[in-house]
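Re: the request from the purification team.
They wanted to know what the chain is likely to look like in 3D before they choose a buffer screen. I agreed to run a prediction and write the result into the notebook, where they can find it.
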Amino acid sequence: MAKKQENVPRYGTAMRRGIQYYRTRITDADGKRVDLYAETCEELQLKEMEARRQVEEAVFRRKHPTVAEYCEKWLLMQSAKVSSGTLRGYTQTMNNYIVKPLGEMYLSDVTADDIRLAMIPLASKSAGLYSKVNMLLKCVFYSAERSQLLEYNPCEGLSAKGGKPGKKINALTDEQVKLLLDTVRGLPPYTFIMIALYSGLRREEILGLQWDCVFLDVPTPYISVRRAWRSENNRPVISTTLKTKAARRDVPIPKCLTDCLREVKEKNESEYVIADRNGQPLSSSQFQRVWKYVTVRSTKPHTYYKYVNGQCVKCTVTPTPGSHQKNNPKLVYAIDFDVTPHQLRHTYITNLLYAGVDPKTVQYLAGHENSKTTMDIYAQVKYNKPEELLGVVNAAFAPSVGV
């Protein structure tokens, strides 16, 4: 017992509420001085040892965080830069495809092989998801490298290509555009489709568009993109936070869209160009119902259920172009091609490039922050037409003819 007593430090004392305690001070993980109190020296020694252990652990964890811990910190740092919707997407993807396979490992222990093994399940997923996980991995590990938490970055050399190739988005032809507009003329999605086809605005930019940003009575009519729509719990939220800085732009519009918007404005009492019956921006489910006017007129196979002898039976019909829906004679099946809201924007960009507009101007009009996005579309448009390349090829090899 005497030996144990000799190992106990001699602490100073302090009075607290009229009672004398033994006291010592330590420096915590944040560099602040912290007081510890106890009624006996032995008890205070145990408190001090536990506190120092926790400080050492906290310091170690800061220098050697796990993947899960640093991912959480990285997401917190992004919360001031991106919208809540984007942050939710990042969080879900990161938790499913980065934290699950790697989360318990110390960040500094992760090797390139660990990264490749974590990416294996994504080989069966879409190329878009593979690219997103690839981007998040590189952002996290490059951020850790800049913070000097890594001596070696395991993401160096990680290929950005992988996953199942997605379905290629093809621009609508002039004939398809005419058929689409003729089919939905006078129906709820018509105005949305016109704006997308002839101004190239994104879906969230169209649904957030207000009349104070539509200038029709000026020498050069244009739309000023200043707001964006997003959905939170199926409730529309309109804000001035755009997808990127480049999304803030003024887009001149052609006469056909000017005339369309002028007609809509005369009948519209809402401050929103696209609004519900109460003059409010559409919710996510409302927009889906609006777009349904397009999909139900498609000649793609339609599936429905009916009861036969008390049993629910699945039925599939493939409408022929020009035929009418049995229960709604006014509904004509006319759209014999795939069409999505984003495809309308893609058609606008493609048509600009077909018209010879230089890619830098197209980048501005489309609101692309990265020129690579514009140039990828440009390459598809310019270099996938053999009849236009024949003269270029002949001219390139003209000197070798007859050799």
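For the purification team: The chain has 15 helices and twelve strands.
Please add any questions underneath this entry.
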